[in-house]
Amino acid sequence: MLRLPPSSSSDASLRMAKVRQTGTDAELALRREMYRIGLRYRIDYEVLKKPRRVADVAFPSRKIAVFVDGCFWHGCPEHATWPKRNAEFWRQKIEANRQRDADTNARLQANGWTPLRFWSHESPVEAAEAVARMVAKVRTKQRVSPRGAHEKN
């Protein structure tokens, strides 16, 4: 576990305290768009018990988990910035987030889930369309059994 260094300033401390972990603007925009196109979903859904992992949006019956990753917190290759103060702490923190994301994806896939990840800077319309395509693809696979007989949904 990372030890928190002292705040670089009281302003920095206040800024960090205001950062939302759930219900971010990007998350809300994606959820609005998914709802607009007719998708119904669960929010802040626990997809793994140990270690505990929570998807921003989930389709439990389809085993699809959606994550909206913030550019700073998850080290977006396009928009990530590396703080100069407490630089080593932040590098470790962001790298740990990246490792946890990869571990979450692997664990979900091993349990039959499809993880979908979007950066917070991505278009919510395009992200929602990608989610809708995956939901439709999984729905089609679930309707047809290996023998070709139709299953109940």
CATH superfamily annotation:
VSR Endonuclease
Q: What proportion of the residues is helical, as a percent range?
A: 40-55%
Please state the structural category: alpha+beta
Secondary-structure arrangement, i.e. CATH architecture: 3-Layer(aba) Sandwich
Largest sheet: 4 strands, mixed
How is the CATH topology named? Endonuclease, Chain A
| Number of strand segments | 4
End-to-end distance, in Å? 43 Å
CATH class type: Alpha Beta
Question: What topology, given as strand order, has the largest sheet?
Answer: 1-2-3-4
Instruction: Figure out the total of helices.
Output: 5
Question: What is the residue-averaged pLDDT?
Answer: 85
Uncertain runs are 15-19, 149-153
What can you tell me about this protein's structure?
The protein is an alpha+beta fold and 153 residues long. The protein has a single domain (20-143), classed as VSR Endonuclease (Endonuclease, Chain A), CATH 3.40.960. Helices cover 44% and strands 17% of the residues. The chain is built from five helices and four strands. It has helices spanning 10-17, 25-36, 71-74, 87-110, 124-143; strands at residues 42-48, 53-59, 64-69, 114-119. A four-stranded mixed beta sheet has the order 1-2-3-4, with helices on both faces. Helix 2 packs across helix 5 (124-143).
